[in-house]
Amino acid sequence: MRKKIIAGNWKMNETPSEALKLVETLKPLVNNPDVDVVYCVPAIDIVPVVNAVKGTNVHVGAENLYFEDKGAYTGEISADMLLDAGVEYVIMGHSERRGYFHETDEDINRKLLKALEKGLKPIVCCGESLEQREEGITEDWIRMQIKIAFKGVTAEQAKGVVIAYEPIWAIGTGKTATSEQAEEVCKAIRETIGEIYDEATAAAIRIQYGGSMNAGNCKELLAMPDIDGGLIGGASLKPDFGTIVNYNK
Ligand code: 13P
């Protein structure tokens, strides 16, 4: 049985002092031993949030990393820096980073290899645009994103990776994919992992859905057989996040 993983992606929200308030607000709401709970926070919030969640069930993630070890890369953050600050998880390949910051599938592959080499737990995002969905190329597109991202990753490493399926048209739009649409693609992602590796790896890897997941629709989405969690934007900044974490209660 795969343990569900509910992760908040705070994006560029919450100053360090606001972050501490949010952690306090959510503290009594996010207790569920059946679920891995992760807050992926802006870089400047990492140290205060790591301290604030000490002794709780909450794990801390970053929203990005750079694939070089160290050096003259102004503005970037290395895997060692994240680890030293107490980070466990790291998002890579979010559509906002692909779109606004021109990240390529090859960059995401290098980030994934670096995170795994260093022992960070990667959350690898993929997803299609509305145009691609309307053209009927969703699954081909996502298979390609996954195949490039996982180049050089071993089966043992792949088992510990989390994949987040986030249709771009559902992010921040209030337009959630139906649970059938989300399941269809998450199933195709699992099949792709099975093709690249083997059945055991496909059965072990966790796949999240992300895109306007909220307190109202989480139950139905998380009941689907290939959806092992959620990557939550807007609703992760509110007490609703607690409802999502406790979707099975
Ligand atoms: P929303 O939940 O705000 O749609 O964002 C989803 C997302 O992009 C999480 O990474």
Query: Strand share of the residues?
Result: 15-25%
Query: C-alpha Rg, in Å?
Result: 17 Å
Label the structural class. Answer: alpha/beta
Order of the strands making up the biggest sheet: 1-2-3-4-5-6-7-8
Structure description:
- The chain is built from 12 helices and 8 strands.
- By secondary structure, it is of the alpha/beta class.
- Helix 7 crosses helix 9 (179-196).
- The longest helix is centred in the last third of the chain and has 18 residues, at 179-196.
- It binds 1,3-dihydroxyacetonephosphate.
- The site of 1,3-dihydroxyacetonephosphate has 14 residues, from strand 8.
In short:
The chain is of the alpha/beta class and 249 residues long. The protein has twelve helices and eight strands. The mean pLDDT is 98.
Please describe the structure with a list of short key phrases separated by commas or semicolons:
249 residues, alpha/beta, 8-stranded parallel barrel, 41% helix, globular, binds 1,3-dihydroxyacetonephosphate
Topology:
Layout: E1 4-9, H1 16-26, E2 35-41, H2 46-52, E3 58-62, H3 79-85, E4 89-92, H4 95-100, H5 105-118, E5 121-126, H6 130-135, H7 138-149, H8 155-159, E6 162-165, H9 179-196, H10 199-204, E7 206-210, H11 218-222, E8 229-232, H12 240-245
Parallel strand pairs: 1-2, 1-8, 2-3, 3-4, 4-5, 5-6, 6-7, 7-8
Helix pairs in contact: 7-9
The structure holds 1,3-dihydroxyacetonephosphate.
